[in-house]
Write a structure and sequence with these properties.
By secondary structure, the protein is α/β, with parallel strands linked by helices. It has one domain: Glycosidases (TIM Barrel, Alpha-Beta Barrel), CATH 3.20.20. An eight-stranded parallel β-barrel has the order 1-2-3-4-5-6-8-9, surrounded by five helices. Strand 3, helix 8 and strand 4 form a beta-alpha-beta unit. About 2% of the residues have low confidence. Bound molecules: ligand G3I.
Length: 375
């Protein structure tokens, strides 16, 4: 009986989080946020090739910005030094243009999903610095020029720092030193002088990483190298990071004079084998069923916690709307999320704004009501 009463209380509490005011049910979130910041999502292969028609409808109805989840990474678009595969990238850009979306290219220089030939010679040894510079310039120039009229902004360099603020020892860094970052931005700007150029990373709430990125932006600006925004990926958990810590980074980046973008937002509800609060794709753990507790759906109490915390992040974004120009969710529905397979394959996560049945979650109406209350 006690359990039944507690369940009833939780259900009513959960329902009270989902705003029922009819003036929000039909208004798309992109429209309500239109004068605040772009509302984006990441497209996977099923969206790009048209096989997920329900997902495509969610994208068209609710978002006005898109980013390529995988198809523009070097291993996909430039698999061999003398061979490009633009098929999926072209379809992605075509979808964006047809639906009048702000299109972001992700990502020109990244150590992961990197074409195996990019930084090594035929014997697998690091290439000389000049060779790597030429390869970077060829890659960036070819890809950026191809989409010059369509892609408005590029994640030029992704995840160049460790959480302690040191440079990540990627093949680019090991061969060229920190100069590779400025070179990548320079090549991208030369290829498309009108494109916005971004530095993108995760765990940007961490002070050491924040300070390193601030220093990077200041150095680039002092050299007259174009950088328009810092991308904070925002792969967060139910209890980490704090809103305050995250806000400190928004403020610090904005104080350098660039915009801030929330580029890969998702909020996991799943336990982590270790306190793994980042998004380092190289991390992985063997499957453990105890780490996959919500295979039959989320308990009401967890739903409420997730809803309230997601709303808190959007309230933070609205508070800083004068510097935040885009908020992008890293996927369309929960079933699309990389979180279902990272850092452990085969789990059921619930990190995004639309559920596995393509239905919007109550938090969307809560966000809309928050905006309408303060408009
Ligand atoms: O395309 C192959 C397919 O041919 C093959 O059959 C299949 C099974 O092995 O793998 C497919 O490639 C996978 C790719 O996603 C496309 O689905 C890779 O194995 C898989 O590792 C890759 O995961 C992506 C991950 O980056 C790794 O780079 C995720 O989808 C993607 O969401 C994630 O996104 C990154 C951002 O780009 C940068 N920030 C962190 C974020 C999360 O890791």
């Amino acid at each position: 009986m006690r359990k039944f009463i507690i369940t009833i209380i939780i259900v009513f509490a959960y329902l009270s989080c989902s705003d029922k005011s009819s003036d929000t049910t039909s208004v798309p979130i992109k429209q309500v946020l239109n004068d605040k910041f772009l509302m984006g999502t990441a497209l996977n292969e099923n969206h790009i090739l048209g096989t997920d028609s329900s997902g495509i409808k969610v994208v068209k109805d609710n978002f006005n910005a898109i980013v390529a989840e995988n198809c523009m990474k070097s291993v996909e678009i430039h698999p061999l030094e003398n061979s490009y595969d633009f098929y999926r990238a072209d379809k992605f850009v075509e979808f964006g243009e047809k639906n009048n979306m702000f299109i972001t290219g992700h990502t020109l220089i990244w150590h992961s999903q990197l074409s195996p030939w990019f930084c090594v010679d035929e014997n697998g040894q690091d290439v000389p610095a000049d060779t790597l510079k030429q390869r970077m310039k060829n890659h960036i120039t070819t890809v950026v020029k191809r989409y010059k009229e369509s892609i408005k902004g590029w994640d030029v360099v992704n995840e160049a720092f460790n959480d302690d603020g040191s440079f990540r020892e990627t093949p680019f860094y090991n061969i060229l030193g920190e100069e590779y970052i400025a070179l990548a931005f320079q090549y991208a700007h030369e290829a498309d002088p009108d494109a916005e150029l971004y530095y993108n990373d995760y765990s940007m709430n961490k002070k050491a990483k924040r300070d390193a990125v601030v220093k990077l932006v200041e150095n680039m600006k002092s050299k007259g190298i174009r950088i328009d925004a810092v991308g904070m990926q925002c792969h967060v958990m139910l209890d980490y990071p704090s809103i305050e810590e995250f806000e400190n980074s928004i403020i610090a980046f904005a104080e350098t004079g660039v915009n801030v973008m929330i580029t890969e937002m998702d909020m996991t509800v799943l336990p982590n084998p270790e306190k793994n609060d980042g998004a380092n794709v190289d991390t992985s753990y063997e499957y453990q069923s105890k780490m996959n507790p919500y295979t039959e759906g989320l308990p009401g109490s967890v739903n409420i916690q997730w809803t309230n915390r997601m709303l808190d992040f959007f309230k933070l974004f609205l508070k800083h709307q004068e510097v935040i120009t885009r908020v992008t969710m890293w996927g369309v529905t929960d079933k699309d999320s990389w979180r279902n397979n990272w850092p452990m394959h085969g789990r059921a996560d619930y990190p995004l704004l639309f559920d596995r049945n393509y239905q919007k979650k109550p938090v969307i109406d809560s966000i809309i009501n928050t905006v309408q209350k303060y408009n």
